[in-house]
Write a structure and sequence with these properties.
Low-confidence stretches of chain A: 21-25, 248-254
Shape of chain A: globular
Order of helices and strands of chain A: EHEEHEEHHHEHEHEEHHEEEEEEEEEE
Largest interface: A-B, 30 and 29 residues
Number of helices of chain A: 9
CATH architecture of the largest domain in chain A: 3-Layer(aba) Sandwich
Distance between the termini of chain B: 31 Å
Number of strands of chain B: 0
Strand content of chain A: 35-45%
CATH class of the largest domain in chain A: Alpha Beta
Low-confidence stretches of chain B: none
Oligomer: heterodimer
Order of helices and strands of chain B: HHHHHHHHHH
Structural class of chain A: alpha/beta
Shape of chain B: globular
Strand content of chain B: under 5%
Mean pLDDT of chain A: 82
Distance between the termini of chain A: 77 Å
Number of domains of chain B: 1
Radius of gyration of chain A: 25 Å
Chain lengths: ~400, ~260
């Protein structure tokens, strides 16, 4: 096989779904024994086939859950297919998740060595690569600092520099470039374009049509795990965007909050607080985000089976988290006149930043009240001690009259 | 060095480096821990239950068995967490994952080896001069480490599916400790003969017997000890590799 070739023939991949609904302590106890929950299979890829020649840059597009990330993980060798064959040749660099192998207590340089070993490089090769990595990530002065003192930007920079320093034949990119400041993003794109120009194979997953068009010549549209369309990037992106116009308008409007529904049942007052009940819009890793809602109905009788839901979106409209009481196995709401309800979320914050919270009241086939992207919130990473603190400080100034 | 060896070396180094960060006594703990447990057991078995009095230098006898046992128990406990602790890594790059349980066993073996050097000095100082049989000790250490790796592979996989495995393991290890010839010698008439026959089927009994005879008594280990150790090692290591290989694809998705 020529280096940089990818063959994906008739690939299926099944995940097992668990329905863990630990409602009561007893049920939790029951779950301890035998994990007494129903099992389902979810087919993430369904007889997908394609071939990518060396030097091609190909985008994988499709809605969430279409199988894009699963495809990348299969290419990276992380998953093995349930059936079918995945063949790749040459060295693969995967930018799926930057810096994950880093141990917080080890220094930047130690982490580079460890990661190099995970990628199969010997010590000598890593010694050669380190100066380049340090320079590209602009971390020359911090290579001997434990990475737990790095900012998230520094962390990502080191991760990117390391992953791309290995001169790969195939580069797998999963939207990681959304992180880091603009200047570093530009630098990352430069390096990736450099790879493309030197004839490396690139597989790119992104929700940004602009980035896809800039980088890729070909696109593969995945839909529910199947290849729906495969061809020149403009054709595929055109068809894909057409088919998703509704959805895209929705997300395009996402920057502005939107409120809709028949309002038979509605939110009359909503406050966001942290776990201890203090109003807050900023949450750290480990904090609880609590949505307290006063819900009213205009109906004379009580309204039963109300589903209270929420979702959290990135500024570009991409949903990162969504659930409701039905899905979570909690009782549905019944409102007579007015009542209070709350949602408590303790998110694991993988990517700190600004997000938008949507909440909704729905019933059986009715939309009572939606508040889409209504509540801006900020998620921060875990608190880090700064590497330096002031133990004692004296600032002495002496001014003579002449200079005044 | 081949890629696999290098990976193992890096993971072991990381394990050792990380373990003693922010620890005042640092590396010394490899010695302090067995010494503390030796003191406790010595008091219990010579002053409270007068049992150890029958053995000369009971505390040294104890330590000879405690070091390999601590290695065994610590490796198994560590292996339960090794896949879970590294789940992000496993899910974002490919590398031979079997390196994770094996490297945690090797890191613990490094501790055992250093402590053994100190123990051998102590033993010699108290008149337990090693005989020629000491040359078989490295073989026993390698076999014990291989068997431990086999167990570690199975436990690391099992704990991904059922977190109870790690809880259960703690209980099992407690019983296992007393079912192994660590605080008592075999063939000295201290325990009923029928019990001895059962204890000899314990997978670690052979190793303990070899450690005691080569390091403490300075004699050649009995044949049954070698037969037991070699057989169990082959069985457990093969089972561990098989289970790990079979389950690896679904474990990655399950994490």
């Amino acid at each position: 096989m020529r280096k940089g070739l990818i063959q994906f023939s008739d690939v299926c991949l099944d995940y097992r779904l668990y329905r863990d609904r630990s409602v009561s302590i007893m049920e939790t106890l029951m779950n301890v024994f035998g994990r007494g929950t129903s099992r389902d299979w979810f087919r993430a890829l369904d007889h997908a086939s394609f071939q990518i020649s060396p030097g091609e840059s190909v985008a994988l597009v499709g809605s969430n859950g279409a199988g894009k990330s699963t495809t990348l993980k299969l290419l990276a060798g992380i998953y093995s297919p349930t059936s079918g064959k995945v063949r790749t040749s040459g060295r693969i660099a995967s930018l799926l998740d930057l810096g994950v192998g880093f141990h917080p207590e080890l220094t930047g340089a130690e982490n580079v060595f460890l990661n190099g070993a995970l990628l199969g490089f010997d010590q000598k090769r890593m010694v050669e690569l380190i100066p380049g990595i340090a320079e590209f990530s602009m971390l020359e002065r911090f290579m001997d600092t434990p990475v737990k003192y790095y900012s998230s930007g520094m962390f990502m920079r080191l991760g990117f520099a390391l992953a791309t320093s290995v001169n790969p034949d195939i580069l797998l990119i999963d939207e990681v470039l959304a992180v880091g400041d603009a200047a570093f993003q530009a630098k990352c794109y430069d390096r990736i374009f450099g790879f493309r120009e030197s004839g490396k194979t690139i597989v790119f997953v992104s929700h940004d049509p602009e980035a896809v068009r800039r980088l890729c010549t070909r696109a593969i549209w995945l839909d529910s795990g199947r290849v729906r369309m495969d061809g020149p990037v403009d054709d595929v992106m055109g068809a894909y965007l057409d088919a998703n116009t509704g959805r895209l308008i929705n997300t395009a409007a996402s920057a502005a909050p939107r409120e809709w529904g028949n309002r038979e049942v509605f939110f009359s007052r909503v406050t966001l607080t942290n776990g201890s009940g203090v109003p807050s819009r900023t949450f750290r890793q480990g904090d609880t985000l609590k949505v307290n809602a006063l819900i009213e109905t205009r109906e004379a009788e009580e309204v039963k089976n109300i589903i209270l839901g929420f979702s959290i979106h990135r500024p570009d409209g991409e949903t990162v988290l969504a659930s409701n009481n039905l899905e979570n196995g909690e009782p549905l709401l019944t409102i007579a006149g007015s009542g209070e309800a709350s949602i408590s979320i303790t998110p694991e914050i993988v990517e700190p930043g600004n997000y938008l919270l949507s909440i909704s009241l729905t019933g059986n086939d009715t939309d009572y009240h939606w508040q889409d992207n209504f509540y801006p919130i900020s998620m921060l990473g875990a608190k880090k001690m700064p590497p330096l603190r002031i133990k004692s400080l004296r600032v002495v100034g002496k001014l003579d009259k002449k200079s005044q | 060095m081949t890629g696999g060896m290098l990976l193992m070396k890096s993971l072991v180094e990381k394990d050792l480096k990380v373990r003693y960060k922010r620890s005042f006594l640092g590396f010394l703990w490899f010695l302090l821990k067995p010494l503390f447990s030796m003191v406790v057991y010595t008091i219990v078995f010579t002053k409270i239950i007068r049992f150890g009095g029958a053995i000369e230098h009971f505390s040294l006898f104890l330590l000879t068995g405690l070091l390999p046992w601590n290695f065994f128990a610590a490796s198994l406990s560590a292996s339960a967490k090794t896949l879970l602790d590294n789940q992000k890594l496993i899910r974002s790059i490919y590398f031979p994952r079997v390196a994770l349980p094996i490297s945690s066993v090797i890191a613990n073996a490094v501790h055992m080896l250093m402590a053994m050097v100190v123990l051998e000095v102590l033993l010699t100082a108290f008149g337990h001069i090693p005989g020629l049989s000491i040359i078989t000790l490295p073989v026993a250490i390698v076999l014990l480490a291989a068997m431990t790796s086999g167990f570690a592979m199975m436990i690391s996989v099992g704990n991904v599916y059922y977190r109870d495995v790690s809880q259960f393991l703690e209980v099992i290890l407690l019983a296992w400790f007393y079912a192994s010839p660590i605080i008592y010698p075999l063939g000295a008439g201290l325990i009923p003969a029928r019990m001895e026959a059962v204890i000899k089927f314990n997978p670690v009994a052979g190793a303990m017997e070899i450690f005691h005879s080569t390091m403490y008594y300075g004699t050649w280990p009995e044949l049954w000890a070698w037969v037991s150790l070699v057989t169990w090692t082959a069985v457990i290591l093969a089972a561990g590799l098989l289970v790990f290989k079979r389950m690896e694809p679904s474990v990655v998705k399950e994490l």
